[in-house]
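Design request, tokens follow.
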């Protein structure tokens, strides 16, 4: 606690925060354009575009499984981040050439596999055992994700929508290069273990069986949840294009700007939410992670039920209601996603940090792929029924997490 800090946290957290912010800028910048690019420029049918979108986002979260093992066993976290970031930057440049579309998506996914698990797995190493700041570090880190996600649609989306899709993809590549630059500049502030190649034999004997079972159960529930959550960049974006009145006075709001609402609200809501959780913890009423995640899934279900009620009336919906949807949706997201990532990272055995974080991304892979399949139903159902289905999917995830909560409490008492 006596070490030099930035914003009350170890300086290395700021480096990881900024690196992640720029990487997420590149990812969300490209993602904000992807469905529109496929349907408007490449003239893909909606069902095919949703499948490609789901397959890409799924692939981006499947490759970290192998990437985490490679980082822990062969490359070390620093090399994995540098190689992965370079591949992602190259993939974004390739997106500016239509014939390289599928190769570009594959290149970004491969680079993401090395990059994604190696960055957050360094957070725990910044703190001494028992440091109370660690409890909030993952929510702070998550704000970095969303600053990048907020800026990306405004810059990449606007350039792509108004001046040409390839301009948007090019700016996404620049963001990835900036992230790599920040990471390399800030090496002196990062854990020494992250800068060294791994030893020939990795320390640690693996997971206790009960801990592994807990993480598998949580991963299955999150897989269900992502089937609904990932529709924000897919079918909700399609509805915003055709079913929302985007006029604000003399201005028609670009459709990609709405995708900035979610990360903007993360930045606005996180400080108040952290203060609320600190007060509950000080009063001895802190929620266990699984119960907190269940509450988040339930709130996301309510957000989709709001859209179901709005679209059941028919006609177009005023953009203010879409903003209200994002406010409720984001509140639920903050309860479930940073909590899950932090839980996986904290339960990682020594020497398996990147591998364990990669296991969290496996649930995102499966959920993203299922979201692509769910997205194909958009053309077959009326909007009200479709959003009601998404609410049911998120609600089912909430029930699964509630069922897991007693098991989690037993494990916490034993440990």
């Amino acid at each position: 606690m006596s070490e030099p800090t930035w914003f009350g946290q170890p300086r290395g957290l700021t480096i990881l925060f900024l690196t992640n912010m720029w990487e997420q800028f590149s990812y969300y910048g490209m993602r904000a354009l992807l469905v529109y690019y496929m349907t408007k420029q490449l003239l893909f049918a909606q069902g095919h575009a949703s499948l490609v979108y789901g397959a890409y986002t799924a692939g981006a979260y499947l490759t970290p499984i192998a990437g985490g093992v490679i980082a822990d066993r062969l490359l070390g976290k620093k090399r994995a981040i540098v190689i992965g970031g370079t591949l992602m930057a190259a993939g974004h440049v390739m997106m500016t050439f239509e014939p390289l579309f599928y190769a570009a998506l594959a290149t970004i996914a491969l680079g993401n596999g090395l990059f994604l698990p190696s960055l957050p797995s360094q957070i725990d190493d910044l703190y001494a055992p028992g440091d109370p700041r660690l409890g909030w570090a993952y929510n702070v880190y998550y704000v970095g994700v969303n600053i990048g996600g907020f800026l990306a649609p405004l810059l990449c989306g606007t350039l792509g929508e108004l001046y040409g899709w390839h301009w948007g993809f090019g700016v996404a590549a620049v963001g990835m290069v900036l992230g790599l630059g920040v990471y390399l500049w800030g090496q002196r502030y990062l854990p020494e273990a992250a800068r060294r190649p791994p030893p020939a034999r990795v320390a640690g004997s693996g997971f206790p069986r009960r801990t592994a079972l807990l993480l598998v159960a949580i991963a299955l529930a999150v897989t269900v949840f992502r089937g609904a959550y990932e529709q924000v960049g897919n079918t909700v974006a399609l509805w915003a294009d055709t079913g929302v009145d985007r006029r604000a006075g003399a201005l028609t709001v670009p459709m990609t700007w709405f995708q900035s609402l979610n990360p903007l609200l993360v930045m606005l809501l996180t400080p108040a939410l952290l203060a609320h959780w600190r007060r509950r913890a000080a009063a001895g009423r802190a929620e266990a992670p699984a119960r907190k995640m269940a509450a988040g899934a339930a709130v996301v279900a309510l957000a989709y039920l709001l859209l179901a009620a709005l679209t059941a009336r028919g006609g177009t919906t005023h953009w203010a209601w879409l903003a209200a949807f994002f406010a409720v949706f984001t509140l639920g997201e903050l309860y479930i996603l940073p909590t899950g990532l932090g839980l996986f990272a904290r339960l990682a055995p020594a020497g398996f940090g990147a591998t364990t974080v990669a296991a969290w991304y496996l649930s995102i892979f499966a959920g993203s792929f299922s979201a692509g399949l769910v997205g194909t139903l958009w053309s077959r159902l009326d909007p009200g029924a479709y959003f009601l289905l998404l609410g049911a999917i998120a609600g089912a995830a909430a029930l699964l997490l509630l069922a897991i909560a007693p098991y989690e409490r037993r494990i916490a008492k034993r440990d």
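Comment from the thread starter after seeing the answer: thanks! The chain has a mean pLDDT of 85.
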